[in-house]
UniProtKB/TrEMBL annotation:
Signal sequence segment: none
Name the record gives this protein: Heat shock 70 kDa protein 12A-like isoform X3
Keywords: ATP-binding, Nucleotide-binding
Pfam families in alphabetical order: HSP70
CDD domains in alphabetical order: ASKHA_NBD_HSP70_HSPA12
Gene name of the encoded protein: LOC111124486
Family: Belongs to the heat shock protein 70 family.
């Protein structure tokens, strides 16, 4: 059943936003998608996304989100009233590669004060949800919750627990579980590009990319992560993944880090720390000014570039280094001699020094893509779609075009909104992605009869005088396997070990290896457990269950069926946060 309205929230590392479209508009023109416009107070940015910042008051009560939170916190800092408040900025990256993530995991704010991550994420999503609803209701009255399909975006390279964490954060603020779809960011971008009008002559036209049998790589370059998928277009227009999702944390914020490091190498890390703490307002303004300037830096740049730096940074330098002269410090550093001047509140930097701020992230992205193109199922891919906020940077575009001259690199119009708008399209047609490549090996821990020739003595366990080998990894789906979305995978049978056993406990594991032997091997992780009850013990050890896994969307369902009684079935969604 199609919903009247699809509402998507793109929760990014640096910027977040929402978009929506009504079913009647989608049928006429799929790209008739509404997005909100936000105004940043300082710096006069007008954008279709707002800053990913959340502010809580001293009592831990939610106060504001986005540019509004930035502005309020800056003003509190000016009045030295900000110390008891909680301010979280660019906090999404805590879910990237986080080991041991639970529902109770804590997150540190701007000054190291801790709060439950679930609360921070859910309040942020809740704010965007409510903002979206009030905008929609202005366009169409009488919209009920049951009329809306919600879509929340997450990076494809995230682990299963991180994806589930985002889902639960959304459910906490009243988004109904069965009306919520999780979209993988590069997949959403892919679907958006599919719908773009084709002009044969423009450099960035998607002409030929989406014909049947065509293969292309989507590089979703955001603020935090670079998320890469490779797709092949099927005869029916759906998309099949050719290589497992991959990437790393080399997004646009790496450029900001390079700029901060450059400042620290002039004035010293201690001065930067003191400035950040004592002049919060100026620090936030510095970041926002840099954000705007960063977008204008171009590979063909030959002129010097002027960066505005708050005068308080110089003041802090003088306080920490009495008698110190910034000009002397700059000229005595070989890296900056004749390349950088610092006068009052302005730094002038030579073009090459400015462009070098992009080197680290661009190099990591390009190197990773080179490695990907060595894979047999990726090497003949011709099209590269560059999307995401960082994809709008001419520096990254040039780096990718230079590195892959034999490929066609396409940067679609509105590259920074491709994920958000694609998420809306995905909500209308979630079956567009028909098959994905498994990112891990999935299986169940089991015991098998002990064999002295192959099993280590350390794994020997006794059950009713019978020797078994424990911790055996029974593989259900190997890493790299192409899985059709929603189709049950290979079934395995498991039996009871003891005649009086009244159930079987299943422990579900993942591994990075294709053929792990034991669940204790390096790279194996326990995902979750579930039980099938077998209260009737009259058949002794001649009892068991068939188990299979189904991968649908971004969730995994495990089903166990009693081998003697098909009406006894247990189905459970794997709880990755248990």
């Amino acid at each position: 059943m199609s919903s009247l309205l699809v509402a998507a929230i793109d929760f990014g590392t640096t910027f977040s936003g929402y978009a929506f479209s009504f079913l009647h508009d989608y049928k006429r023109d799929p790209l008739k998608i509404s997005a909100n416009t936000w105004n940043a107070g300082i710096g006069q940015l007008v954008t279709q996304k707002t800053s990913t910042c959340v502010l809580f008051d001293a009592a831990g009560k939610f106060h504001s989100f986005g540019f509004e939170a930035e502005e309020k916190y800056s003003n509190l800092a000016l009045d030295a009233q900000h110390n008891d408040w909680y301010y979280f900025r660019r906090f999404k990256m805590m879910l990237y590669d986080k080991k041991g993530l639970t529902r109770e995991s804590l997150i540190e704010d701007d000054k190291g004060k801790k709060m439950e991550a679930m609360k921070v994420f859910s309040e942020a999503i809740g704010y965007l949800r409510n903002h979206l609803l009030s905008t929609c209701k202005n366009q169409l009255t009488g919209i009920e919750d049951s009329d809306i399909t919600w879509v929340l975006t997450v990076p494809a390279i995230w682990t299963d627990p991180s994806k589930q964490f985002m889902r639960e954060a959304a459910e906490k603020v009243g988004i109904c579980r069965d009306k919520l779809v999780i979209a993988l960011e590069p997949e959403a971008a892919s679907i958006y590009c599919m719908h773009l009008p084709v002009h044969k002559d423009s450099e960035n036209s998607t002409f030929g990319v989406f014909k049947s049998g065509s293969k292309y790589m989507v590089v979703d370059a955001g603020g935090g992560t670079i998320d890469i998928t490779v797709h092949e277009v099927q005869d029916n227009g759906n998309l099949k993944e050719l290589h497992k999702a991959n990437g790393g944390n080399w997004g646009g914020t790496k450029v900001d880090s390079s700029f901060r490091s450059l400042l620290a190498s002039i004035v010293g890390e201690d001065v930067i720390e003191a400035f950040t703490t004592d002049h919060k307002y100026d620090y936030l303004e510095l970041l926002r000014d840099f954000e705007i300037k960063k977008r204008t830096i171009h590979p063909t740049l030959t002129e010097k570039v002027t960066f505005k730096v708050p005068i308080n940074l110089l003041e802090t330098f003088r306080n920490e280094n009495p008698g110190g002269n910034i000009k002397t410090v700059v000229t005595s550093n070989a890296r900056f001699k004749n390349k950088l001047t610092w006068t009052g509140d302005k730094i002038r930097m030579e073009a090459n020094l400015t462009k070098a701020l992009f080197d680290e992230s661009c190099k990591k992205i390009v190197d990773h893509m080179h490695e990907l193109f060595k894979h047999p199922n990726v090497k003949d891919v011709y099209f590269i779609l560059l999307v995401g906020g960082f994809a709008e940077s001419p520096m990254l575009q040039e780096a990718v075009r230079e590195a892959f001259r034999n490929k066609k690199v396409i940067v679609p119009q509105d590259a920074g909104l491709a994920v958000l708008k694609g998420a809306v399209l995905y909500g209308h047609q979630p079956k567009t992605i028909s098959a994905r490549v498994c990112k891990y090996t999935y299986g169940v821990e089991t015991n098998v009869k002990f064999n002295n020739d192959i099993h280590p003595q350390s794994k020997k366990v006794l059950f009713d005088e019978v020797e078994y080998c424990g911790n055996v990894f029974s593989v259900h789906v190997p890493v790299g396997k192409l899985i059709k979305v929603g189709e049950p995978q290979v079934e395995q049978v498991y039996t009871v070990i003891k005649p009086d056993q009244t159930g079987i406990d299943f422990k579900i594991y993942t591994s990075n290896e294709r053929e792990p032997t034991y669940t204790t091997d390096v790279g194996c992780t326990l995902l979750g457990t579930f039980t099938i009850d077998m209260p009737d013990t009259s058949k002794g050890t001649d009892r068991g269950a068939f188990v299979h896994m189904t991968f649908s969307g971004t969730e995994i369902t495990v089903t166990a069926v009693d081998k003697d009684d098909a009406t006894k079935t247990v189905s459970t969604k794997v709880d990755f946060l248990g």
